Amino acid sequence: MRLKFLLIIVLFSMTTFGQLTGKVKGLNINQPTTINDTVIKVIYKNNIISRNSQPPAIFFNGKLIDYSLMSTINPESIATMNVIKKDTIIDSVKYNGRIIIEGKISYNHNFMPLNKFKLKYINPSENATVFQIDGNVIYEDYDSYLIDEKYILKAIVSTIDNPKEKIKLNIINLLTKSAKNIEDSNNIILR
Fold first, then answer.
1. Environment class of 85 (CB within 10 Å of its CB; exposed 0-12, middle 13-18, buried 19+)
2. Residues paired with residue 115 on neighbouring β-strands, in sequence order
3. Cα separation of 134 and 102, whole Å?
């Protein structure tokens, strides 16, 4: 009897006090957001592959390319993709593995840096420029960040002019020809 009573107390203690609360390394439990929440959540979006000190080497049709092209290469233009996890050194630069992409022969890419795209399509302006691709801010150098011009659906230019804060800024959001972006561009909103 005493053993049963002790066992019941131990099980009750484990279920009552054994629950994880607070921050536990490697465990994220998200509380649902409700309309009655009183705390404003601030999210900093800084998860970028380029901040990785040793990104993988990416080869497209046998040629080493910058990882930036991955954001605007049409997935339908890719014939095969292989990942090799072995570290690679190219021109004294160490890469964490290789990604080898072979494109379909029938698809012609037109790779260009963001600044060249801006000169070709956007009206000249003295304002500073921030680029986005599908809503994601591009933090890298616009002279070396490459895109596939043929996979761009449209460019949306928003101008911020705030004299009090001394801000003059053009935000250029490039939308790719993804299925979602094409579907969204075909929707007509009546007001």
1. exposed
2. none
3. 24
What is the pLDDT, as a whole number, of residue 15?
54
| Torsion sign over Cα 8, 9, 15, 16 | positive
Q: For 145-167, write each residue's pLDDT tens digit.
A: 999 999 999 999 999 999 999 89
Name, in order, each residue with C-beta under 8 angstroms of 132's C-beta and a sequence gap of 6 or more: 138, 171, 172, 173, 174
Instruction: State pLDDT tens for residues 11-55.
Output: 555 555 555 555 555 555 666 777 777 778 777 766 554 455 678
- Distance (Å, whole) CA 11 – CA 80: 55
Give, in order, the Cα–Cα distances in Å from 56 to each of 5, 95, 100, 124, 181.
59, 5, 10, 36, 28
The answer to whether the beta carbons of residues 113 and 144 sit under 8 Å apart is yes
What is the number of other CB atoms lying within 10 angstroms of the CB of residue 171?
16
